[in-house]
Amino acid sequence: MKNEIRVFCPATIANVSCGFDVLGVALDNVGDEMVVRKTTAKGITITKLEGQDLPLETHKNVAGVAGLALLAATDYTGGFEIEIYKKIKAGSGIGSSAASSTGAVWAMNQLLGKPFSNLELVQFSMKGEELASGVQHADNVAPAIFGGFTLVRSYNPLDIIKINTPKELYATVIHPQIEIKTSDSRKILKTTISLADGIKQWGNVGGLIAGLYTEDYDLIGRSLQDYIIEPIRSILIPAFDNVKSASLEAGALGCGISGSGPSIFALSKGKEKATQVASAMQDVYNKVGIPYDIHVSSVNLEGVKIIE
Ligand code: ADP
């Protein structure tokens, strides 16, 4: 058995418009890399962290916290060293913390001979999410572990379903260079919703799931609507309405806030359309004068994976 592996840890879009805290999808072209190696010394040490200014201390880094949760559940007497190469910016809304927690536990599980199921790996990773945002949400870590689209049907008990990914579905993500902390963007949400909004929202969640399974792109587009979270959170994102209308005009199936923002995502049929959507989004921010990162990506179907 190997003593060391290098893994790709995908960025993820959580919520996917109508599925606050329950839907997520993993991306192929954006993600971190990590090297994880077994050590005879107990515990977890983060030996390197490049690309972002984040804490190296095990208890302050989501990779360390998620890894310790896994270690506590094994009778393995050694430990692990972790190197983190961040490409996803923290607080971007595309699962920066989830990439690190899932990469750590997925790699450790491989090095230990896979004693844990994907569901258990999600549970360990959720401890890392709790450190990052104060809440053990699974909508980023589930797609990062399982790949593709995932639905968290229930949190208690945890029940995760991997959803079919239509072959021609592409994502465009624009990240305006402002930081919104998940914990802050949660604070502004209301804790109750109206029955009328609920009816519209769960109609769309059902429609989106059906559209993904039947590869019905029009149905996916009609269902990518969020009546509950987007109207509140979009206020924190500069030029959100303009980016959204420009994306839809450029042919996107739908457009919304990625996770807790500030990244905005769109889903499109085909890479060409997704690229046109990217330039429509860029035009808006170029005019407003806000710097950004932009990504066009196919859906990552396998989640965290070994790279050479
Ligand atoms: P995202 O939505 O992109 O995951 P969050 O705001 O949820 O962003 O998470 C970022 C927070 O988690 C930051 O406060 C950051 O300091 C903390 N954090 C701790 N360890 C890590 C890590 N390895 N990678 C990313 N963020 C981390």
When the domains are counted, the total is 2
CATH C-level class of the largest domain: Alpha Beta
Strand content: 25-35%
Order of helices and strands: EEEHEHHHEEEHHHHHEEHEE
Tell me roughly what share of residues is in helical segments.
25-40%
- What fold name stands as the CATH topology of the largest domain? Ribosomal Protein S5, domain 2
CATH architecture of the largest domain: 2-Layer Sandwich
Distance between the termini: 16 Å
Low-confidence stretches: none
Tally of contiguous helical segments = 10
Mean pLDDT, rounded to whole units? Answer: 96
What class do helices, strands and sheet pairing give? alpha+beta
Instruction: Choose one word for the global shape.
Output: globular
Total strands: the figure is 11
For the sheet with most strands, the description reads: 7 strands, mixed
Which compounds are bound in this model?
adenosine-5'-diphosphate
Q: Measured on Cα atoms, how large is the radius of gyration?
A: 19 Å
Describe the protein's topology.
Elements: E1 4-14, E2 23-39, E3 43-50, H1 62-72, E4 79-85, H2 96-111, H3 118-133, H4 141-146, E5 149-155, E6 158-163, E7 169-176, H5 182-187, H6 195-214, H7 217-223, H8 230-233, H9 240-249, E8 254-257, E9 264-269, H10 271-288, E10 292-298, E11 305-307
Parallel strand pairs: 3-4
Antiparallel strand pairs: 1-2, 1-11, 2-4, 2-5, 5-6, 7-9, 7-10, 8-9
Helix pairs in contact: 1-2, 1-3, 2-3, 6-7, 9-10
Bound molecules: adenosine-5'-diphosphate.
Adenosine-5'-diphosphate binds at residues 54, 61-63, 84, 90-98, 100, 132-133, 181-182, 259-260.
